[in-house]
Known about the structure:
Radius of gyration: 29 Å
Strand content: under 5%
Number of strands: 0
Number of domains: 1
Amino acid sequence: MYGQGRPHLSFDQLKATPVALPPVPEQERIVAEVDRRLSIVREVEAEVDANLKRAQALRQAVPQRMFAPEDAGVIMAVT
């Protein structure tokens, strides 16, 4: 198996190449920060989903209210 950017780089050579990793406490801090940010993303996604559902319900409610029998002859202004 050869590398795309470096011809004739074998998998064995790649496996033998040392890769520097941060100390374990730093890795744990990084993971904690990623988890914190992902939880914020999940909260925002849930809020966006709820707002989209509300918007959908409002879009469906406007025509229903405009053409409801009890409102016959009344034109509602939508702003």
